Each structure stands twice: as C-alpha cells, then as structure tokens.
C-alpha cells in the first residue's frame, strides 16, 4: 500500500506524476531546466527585441524556477547571436530572439552564412511587434506618403534602415523601382540610433516600430505618414495603412516580426513548453503593458503556429530580398 513506500520513493512518484500531467516525458523533463536559461538577442537595446526578450525572460524565470538571462550580442545583422545559438547545446538552456529578415531574407543577401536557418534552428514562438510605421522629421515639408514620393523626385532623400534586407530596405527599393526614384538607404545597428538621426533630420525618412520611435513622437520631432500592412492597427486608429492608400506591393501586405528560436535538435516537448510560456507571457501584467506601449494587438504565438508561418511565409521574404539585388560577402 502507499503508506508502506519510503518517503523518497513517494516524492519521486509524485514528481513523475506531475511531469506526466504536464505532458513531458519524465526522463527528459527531470533534467530541464537544470541551470540558468540564456536568451541571446542579436540587436542592442532601443528597439523591440530587447524589451520583448526581457519581458518573456521574466515570466519564464518565474515559471521554470531558474534564472533567465538576456544577453545582447549585436552586430553583423544579428548573425553574431545566431551563430552562437546554432553552436549551443540543444538542451533548452539557450534560445534566441531575432527578426524574420535575419533568418529568412539573409540567405538571399549573403553569399556565405555561419548557419543554415532551416537546419540549425527550430521556431519556439512568433513575437508580434505591432505596426511598422513610416515616419519623417517634423521639419520635413511633407504630410503623406504621396508627398514624400513627390519630394524625393526633386531632392535627395535617405531612408534609415535598422538592418540590411529589412523592411525599410525593401520599402526604399520598392519606391525606387516603381516611381523612378533614387532614395538612398542608410544602414544602422538597430532602431535606437536610427530614430535619433531621423528625428534630427540627418536622414529624411525611416521605417520601424512604434515603441522605438515613440520618444521622438512624444517630443514632436517626428511625424508618422502611414503604417505597413493591410489594416489599420486598432491601437493607432488615426494612422492609415499603406494598402488602404493604394500601395499594394507584397512588402506592404506582410507583417514583420520577431521569432524566438532554439537549436534544431532541442527536444520537441521543451520547444513546446518554451512556446507556451511565450504565449502566457503576452497576457501577464508586464506583457500587457509591453503590448500597450508597443501598440501590439496580438500576443505571441505557439511553437506550432510559428513553425507553420515559417513554412508559408519564408519563401515570400526570400523572393522579396532577392529583388533587392544586393549580395554581401
């Protein structure tokens, strides 16, 4: 009978029962997590990836009972962090956050990469970043995208981009090709320094996240012309989408975002658990506050949903990146 079992055996039985109830095989789950979890971020603070990773990391730490440490490893279009992630043990103790363009479009940009995105990584969660906005310095004498295009026909215009092959890079390329313009793309290491130069009029236009530009909006140094996407964002009802204004190129229809990744051989049950924690994190007080501040109307997605999105949308991003006609050694 149960009362005859030694106390240690009782505790072991209870642990295994709890793991089974959570859907985790006991042999694997008992070993995870056995040490702190690292989240590698390929970009510096000042954009969306860093605060997102820290919010999710806080929730994971509370639920998993181990420290979760965010490590910023900016540089090389996010590849420094991705290379480190690809070489990390596939044991659920190292994950990473990066942009869609870093893992999807990069293969069309670079002749040689230190990783194979399809073979080296598995998606843990998709992290919506809210609308990407087209904005200009308040001092620039334009108040719509059409006026910006007319302005660029007679004057030099530079567009700030937070990464090679990113959405702003694609937007500038689309404008140049369709309207016969010569908008110059200026690459920055993340959104923080990018928006400083837009606000200061060093460059004439930028495309990026609401949260990164919001301090400059509050100071009145930048103004928003439109959002990338099909529909208006319900949190920014006064800002029209590019598609609603008649700009129907593929880049104006796709939603950008972040993806949380793990090394490809990470056990599926750990990948699912990490993804479920990301989904949960979006509805915590910190998650809701972040979504409000970033104008994000959707919560993070499950691992399965992000893996489906990867299969369906990555070919589109690759084709759009190939259209840039850029090759980097």
Throw out a few tags for this protein.
329 residues; alpha/beta; D-Maltodextrin-Binding Protein, domain 2; 2 domains; disordered N terminus
Would you mind describing this structure in some detail?
The protein is of the alpha/beta class. The chain folds into two domains: 24-129 and 256-322, D-Maltodextrin-Binding Protein, domain 2 (3-Layer(aba) Sandwich); 132-252, 3-Layer(aba) Sandwich (D-Maltodextrin-Binding Protein, domain 2), CATH 3.40.190.10. 43% of the residues lie in helices and 16% in strands. The protein is built from 13 helices and ten strands. It has helices spanning 7-21, 26-29, 49-64, 79-86, 100-109, 117-120, 145-154, 167-179, 191-199, 210-219, 268-281, 285-294, 303-322, and strands at residues 37-41, 68-72, 94-99, 121-127, 132-137, 158-161, 184-187, 205-209, 222-227, 258-263. The strands form two sheets. A five-stranded mixed beta sheet has the order 2-1-3-10-4, with helices on both faces. Strand 6 (158-161), helix 8 and strand 7 form a beta-alpha-beta unit. The longest helix has 20 residues, at 303-322. The chain is globular and about 65 Å long. The termini are far apart. Residues 1-29 have low confidence and may be disordered.
């Amino acid at each position: 009978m149960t009362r005859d079992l030694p106390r240690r055996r009782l505790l072991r039985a209870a642990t295994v029962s709890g793991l089974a109830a959570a859907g985790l095989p006991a042999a694997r789950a008992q070993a995870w997590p056995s040490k702190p979890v690292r989240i590698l971020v390929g970009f510096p603070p000042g954009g969306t990836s860093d605060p997102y990773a820290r919010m999710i990391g806080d929730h994971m730490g509370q639920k998993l009972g181990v420290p979760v440490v965010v490590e910023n490893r900016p540089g090389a279009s996010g590849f420094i962090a991705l290379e480190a992630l690809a070489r990390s043990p596939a044991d659920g103790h190292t994950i990473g956050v990066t942009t869609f363009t870093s893992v999807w479009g990069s293969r069309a940009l670079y002749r040689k990469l230190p990783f194979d995105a399809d073979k080296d990584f598995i998606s843990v969660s998709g992290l919506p970043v809210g609308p990407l906005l087209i904005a200009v310095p308040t001092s620039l004498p334009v108040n719509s995208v059409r006026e910006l295009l007319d302005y660029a026909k007679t004057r030099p215009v530079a567009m700030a981009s937070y990464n090679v092959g990113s959405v702003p890079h694609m937007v500038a390329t689309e404008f140049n090709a369709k309207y016969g313009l010569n908008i110059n793309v200026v690459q920055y290491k993340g959104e923080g320094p990018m928006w400083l130069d837009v606000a200061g009029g060093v460059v004439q236009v930028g495309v990026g996240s609401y949260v990164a530009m919001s301090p400059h909006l509050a100071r009145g140094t930048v103004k928003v012309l439109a959002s990338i996407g099909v529909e208006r964002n319900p949190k920014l009802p006064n800002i029209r989408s590019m598609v609603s204004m008649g700009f129907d190129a593929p880049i104006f229809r796709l939603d950008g975002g972040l993806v949380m990744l793990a090394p490809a051989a990470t056990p599926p049950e750990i990948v699912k658990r990490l993804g479920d924690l990301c989904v949960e994190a979006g509805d915590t007080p910190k998650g809701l506050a972040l979504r409000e501040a970033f104008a994000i109307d959707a919560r993070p997605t499950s691992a399965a949903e992000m893996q489906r999105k990867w299969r369906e949308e990555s070919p589109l991003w690759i084709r759009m990146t190939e259209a840039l006609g850029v090759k980097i050694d």
